[in-house]
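So, can you check these tokens?
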Amino acid sequence: MRRTFPFVIFALVLAPAALSAQETGGASQSGPPTPTATATEADQTTPNFADFIGRGTIFGDNSDKARFERYRDLRDGGTLDAFRYTSDTMSRHINVQADHVGYRDQRYSAAYDDFGKLKVTFEWNQIPLFFSQDTATLFSEVTPGVLRISDAIQSGIQNKTTTIGAAVGQAQPFDLRLQRDILSLRMTYTATPNLDWNVAIKNTTKDGTQPWAGTFGFSDAVELAVPVDTRTTDIGTSLEWRNDRASATLGYDGSFFRNNIGTLIWDNPLRITDSSTAGPLQGRMSLWPNNNLNTASASGSISLPANSRATGYLSIGAMTQNDALIPFTTNSALPTIPLDRTTADAKAIVTAQNYQFTSRPVEGWWFNVRYRSYDFDNRTPVFNVSQTVAYDTTVEAFAEGGTSPFSFTRRNLDAEASYTGFRWTALRAGYSREQVDQTFRTFDTTVENTARLSADVTGISWLTLRGVYEHAKRTGSGLDEQALDDLGEQVSLRQFDISDRTTNRFSGIVLVMPFSSLSFNGTVSAGNEDRPPTMPSGQETFGLRSNDSRSYSIGMDYVPRDQVSFGISYEFEKYTADQLSRQANPGVQFNDPTRDWTTDGADRAHTLFASLDLLKVWPKTDVRFGYDFSRAETTYIYGLAANTTLPPVVQLPPVQNELQRGTADLRYTISRHFQAGGAYWFEKYTVDNFAQNPSTLSTLAQPSFLILGYLTRPYTANTIIGRVTYLW
């Protein structure tokens, strides 16, 4: 369904704008409209136009139309694809825009600026997400958040008169889609020359379904289309005072999330009755809870002697969430475990600070020092748990005894200095320190120290150079190996985001312009991240051990005259990672190094862009060509210890994907007010993903898993667009 009601708002906003334009002798012809992402937008010297298009797409055999559209709506048909209206006078500015009217990715915006008095902007934007056209399910939503399967199917499978493989023949196909609608309004009112009042309101809704999963154990998992119906309302207001030397701001920000479907209930396809050994007849889980964030802030800046300036920011926020808690299980064959409390009663105080001092005390020198901190103080009461339910079949003791509220504090100190006393050259050095203190992590504290050096060569008409080198070292303290042991993990396991590491990075940029019409550019970067390979005891450390990156690019731009331009660029990227694990059950195996195995992962990507513009080379005619190409490959190579007791490894095939996109756009000026033209788009996507290939997932009934049929498939699309543009 195409939604058009925002166009009414758009028309109401436009009406007074058009009347104002008539009163002032029409719109200004001073410049082009602000560029947007609309591929068919007119290229005009006037800011006022309406671009009408008709579009049709022909797909190759077995093409995945959902992947072709993904975050856009490219259905066949006609629409007002781009509308731009601008009216300017010496005292005010009005701008109205619309894109892809009536489709799922439509956008409307309006802006009014009464210079020095009032500025108002409005936008309504839709963003679709088309997951799959291939999905099918045995479940139907009887009420919001309640998914049921036919009782006959459940009974037949439980009583062994049918199988899940036979039942999936009754699955109903559907499109798996999610829609995001964003409404935003901003206003700035200038009460006095030194005082502004700012107001911002943003409302985001999500509606549709997305892939989800529920499980009753390893042998009974279900992929579900979880219903989504949420709303997030963000409100902000501030008073901002300023003069030539100083400024100060007091503000309030609130964010309020509401989920109209807070709980998901789904039938167990294998059972029609509860059982203390075989599992329950249905499952239940909490979805995203309602929550609030209220924040007050103050900031200011002041000019100081010696070309210096100091700025500061402080905010204090309260996060709260008090949704009802669900019981441990739906299985009526198990005893009921009383809850410690009926609602979450979750709360946290968040304090953020940012202070900065910059100075240019003498010619050629510049200094900058900044301190930032973020404190997440979790004040949620402990939820006491003496017993829990495993796999919805067994009541057992909970060794931890309750929850562990997670808190952390992050502090950052940055200092930089630059010197520009050399001709054409700027030198910069910097130092950063990050300290994170956290609760209930294996390291209580992590500290990372980073040193940076950079050099820039500018001011030469034909050459620009820049190089940056960075060295960082992160170390942790307060290691709690017992916490890992309590979880049944190897005590040498290190969590990648807080483990010790040493990092070296380099990046460089070069721009060469031998002629005003010709330029070449290139970049190179390399990063190396090593983590200690062994513990002090000599034992191997499990987890991520290294993570490296390499990339380079080269490009050229050629503009022999104003009507002709050509550009081409190529980029290569490579990312590698090395991990160590152990395949072991509790007991003798747990400490057996012959059961160790490694994973070497590598991602490689090639990207090519090319474009050619021919503007008025032929009278009244503009022609544009574009071509994009990207190819990516991911490999996983598994290795075993030399004296391994594990069975031989079967290596996985690479994951590959490739996207080509070519465009040709023709526009012909018929008269002062009319243009006509057309465009051709070619897109081809190929993919080979062993995990989600149609040949791998050939049926909804997989061993121990009932899936939706959300697959990874290729597509080939040829799109023809016809266009008529009216200008005024």
About this structure: Residues 263 and 286 are 5 Å apart (CA to CA). Helices lie at 6-23, 65-69, 151-158, 164-167, 481-486. The radius of gyration is 31 Å. The longest helix spans residues 6-23.
